[in-house]
Amino acid sequence: MSLTRRGSRPLWPRVLGVCALAGAVAVGVGAGCSGPEGTHPPAGTVGDPVLLAAGDIGNCGTTQDTDTGNLLDALPGTIALLGDLAYTSGTPTEFNTCFDPAWGRHKARMKPTPGNHEYLTSGAAGYYGYFGALAGDPSKGYYSYNLGDWHLVALNSNCAAVGGCGAGSAQETWLRQDLAANPRTCTLAYWHHPRFSSGSHGDDTTVQPLWKALDDAGADLILTGHDHDYERWKPQTAAGTATANGIVQFVVGTGGTSLRAFTSAQPANSALRDASTWGVLKLTLHSTSYDWEFVPIAGQTFTDKGTGACH
Which domains, from first to last, does the chain contain? Predict the structure, then answer.
């Protein structure tokens, strides 16, 4: 198959509606960087730093990855990549042909994490080759950094490729040590496979020990991809018990590849979900709180917007 790019559309106004959610004020419709360590102020911003996030992005068979890439042109900030970045196998050719034309001009401000499609190429060689030092140690794929007053941790949920994600594994042990060494009022982690999802892939208990380590340290947010939809979850524990002191998880698999409809009822702990809109999540990181906004591509109107407090 020939790998070619398609065009994009102009920006379009968005229409917002208002809803109330427990523990937050929300608005909804329809239901830079020098390496993996250190402090990275977002490029071109004034005031509190901004983190932009999405996964499941580059696909030479779609045009929506170009549309989400166009959003970034008007959205300054550090970019957290949530895995599955170059379909279908994360080869060097797919990164250069299917991801780079759509998003690559913003590469210098990206902080990536790998998805399962990256590892369809042995050792995720296309991913590590494309991002180089931005992706951390290729034998690990996990690292941390600070953004304003926040501590951010990029983890590798391809557990079999890095010696597991269980309690006592190298990654889980490193995570606990990293969190202990970086006590912050606000902490955010991101990886590819969601612990909780009502999308087609569903919950993934493999990453539960990572969630538990973050919960034990009082972390606030987890960002994931994998399911090709958007879903925000209420605060909960690693076991799925709703609690005001739990972690809020976002699934943001809306970066450009094809979306997948939900086929099951919305779980009680799922606050809001949508499977018809491509876009990116924008987080404004204040010293003790955060604002979130799902920003849709041109021509689409679903959004989700609100404010949360750190623990």
Answer: 45-309 (3.60.21.10)
Give the strand order in the sheet containing 110-112: 18-21, 24-29, 303-309, 289-296, 279-285, 50-54, 78-81, 110-112
Local structure of 128: helix, strand or coil:
helix
Question: Are 8 and 70 a contacting pair, CB within 8 Å?
Answer: yes
Angle formed at CA 73 by CA 297 and CA 52, multiple of 5 degrees: 70
Paired strand residues for 24: 21
Q: Give pTM, 2 decimals.
A: 0.87
Candidates 119, 108, 127; CA nearest to 58 is 127
Strand partners, 307: 25, 291
Q: What is the pLDDT of residues 131-151, one digit of tens each?
A: 999 999 999 999 999 999 999
Quote the pLDDT of residue 193.
Answer: 98
Residues of the chain under the 50 pLDDT cut: 1-25, 27, 29-45
The tokens describing 143, both together, are 């690292």
